[in-house]
Amino acid sequence: MKRFKGFLAVLVTLSILGLAGCGAAETNSETKSTLATAKERGYVVVGFANEKPYAYQTPDGQLTGEAVEVARTVLKNMGINEMKGELTEFASLIPGLKAKRFDMITAGMFINPERAKEVDFANPEYRIGESIAVKKGNPLNLHSYKDIAANPEATIAVPGGAIEYDYLLKSGVPLKQIMTVPDMPAALSALQSGRADALTATGPSVQATLETANNPDLERVMDFAQPMIDGKEAVGYGATAFRKEDKDFREAFNTELQKLKESGELLKIIAPFGFTEQELPGDKTAEELSK
């Protein structure tokens, strides 16, 4: 009996110590910011959606792309030397960030008011327009989203959660003509197989997708007319995104990003991914683009 009582006493003591340890861990994690944690451990976990040229994995598993390389340089200048990529579908990026699956999003995501309600964007890294790819010869004569809306036989593939989905709807394209897919490789597969008549994304993304496919039966529509959304030509500004509570992380990121813009280094970083001086964001800020 004494042994049993002694055993119970040990269990109670261990339980109290265990609970105390858990409480300390929770307190520490609650008081330490994402930025402080990242600097301490020397790396960040980034969410990306495998979309060229913004963020994607090379055949040997390396994470690269316009958004990735900009973030990599900025983070190194902040004293964080490693990035660990977490691949997910585009539509899962913001939910994953909020759920703390990763520390930031590097996916070339466009800044807009709806997304800004969910996350805090850094200032933009680039500005870009839309594009489509079709079968060689453009058999359905598609040169705009309006052309797709006017042709009930046309189906267009677009990654779920991408801004192009909204642009298509606002351009009058019926839901039944929009094929939502997980990512750009899936959109390419739909076009190649004939399940879709076109795919859409930003210009650099469409270009990179076609270059990867190296398929002579596909082509980019070079005279594509940019959609007019709410009376304005649709031009997107892409940026890294952070959780709402990580304002110190975002501000530190913005400070280093601004240095890259002013020195001309930003263009050098993004040029290998098909971006030119025309794609530089100018003086636009996340604050004004989020309104």
Automatic annotation (TrEMBL):
<protein>
    <submittedName>
        <fullName>Ectoine/hydroxyectoine ABC transporter solute-binding protein</fullName>
    </submittedName>
</protein>
<dbReference type="GO" id="GO:0051470">
    <property type="term" value="P:ectoine transmembrane transport"/>
</dbReference>
<dbReference type="GO" id="GO:0033294">
    <property type="term" value="F:ectoine binding"/>
</dbReference>
<dbReference type="Pfam" id="PF00497">
    <property type="entry name" value="SBP_bac_3"/>
</dbReference>
<keyword id="KW-0732">Signal</keyword>
<feature type="domain" description="Solute-binding protein family 3/N-terminal">
    <location>
        <begin position="43"/>
        <end position="277"/>
    </location>
</feature>
<feature type="signal peptide">
    <location>
        <begin position="1"/>
        <end position="24"/>
    </location>
</feature>
<dbReference type="InterPro" id="IPR001638">
    <property type="entry name" value="Solute-binding_3/MltF_N"/>
</dbReference>
<dbReference type="InterPro" id="IPR014337">
    <property type="entry name" value="Ectoine_EhuB"/>
</dbReference>
